[in-house]
Structures are given as C-alpha cells and as structure tokens.
Fold:
Amino acid sequence: MNPIPERILKFISEHHIFTLAVSEERGPWCATCFYTYIKERNQFIFTSEPDTRHIISLEREGTYAAAGAIALETKMIGKIRGIQFTGEMKKPEGNDFNNVKAAYLKTFPIARFATLYLWTLVPDYIKMTDNRLGFGKKLIWKTE
Structure:
C-alpha cells in the first residue's frame, strides 16, 4: 500500500469529528461522528446507532461505500485545511470488535458508559487541501 503522507496523518490525528456522507434512495445524507484513527490499520473508528438514517440506508442498499470530510474551521484563507475521503465501512466482529472498542475508549473514555455500535471505515482515497502550502494546494493519496 502507498504510504499516506505524514501531513495528512498529522491532520487526521489533530481532529476527532468527521462528516460522514452516504447515498440512499431518497438522496444523499450526512452525519457528524466522533472518530479515532488507527494509523497502522488506516482505519477510522466511530460509533453510530443502528436506527440512524445513515446506517439504515447503508444496510438497506447493501453497500457500505461512504465518503467523509474533516475540516479546520477558519476565516483566514491562508490557513484553510481539510480532507475529503472515500472508503468502505464495516461492522467489526469478534476479537476485532474488542480491539476497535479498546482504541475508541482510549480516545473517548467517557464512552465506556454508553452502548457502543462501532463501525470502521478504511479510506481508499484521501484528498487534502492545505492552503499553508499555497492557495488551493492539494495532496492526493489513494490505494494502488
């Protein structure tokens, strides 16, 4: 697998909320989710209840293709940064669920008091905009 540029990995690690986008029969839908990221597995981990619109639509469509975005909110044009990504979501099961849960709880210890419906998303394409490198500068990463 192509190594993900450190600039992208650093940006992902500096944040903890992404916007998840799915497509359903009624059209596109977005949800905001808290996430943690496991660099070694190139894997976002987040929790989302089974009765949410985005999870229902994914399971109804039978596809777990999703897109997402993480953005730094700023009015300073020269400091705008963000990423957009696509990938596949999965429900972790068995021992993998326990590993994913441990990683999620390490980032969000308060979640140990909640029922966790964990999902993973492995990106296959990431585009980062980083205006600190020049206006509109893009870094692209994708699986080979």
Summary: The helical segments are 6-13, 53-61, 94-107. The first strand starts at residue 17 and ends at 24.
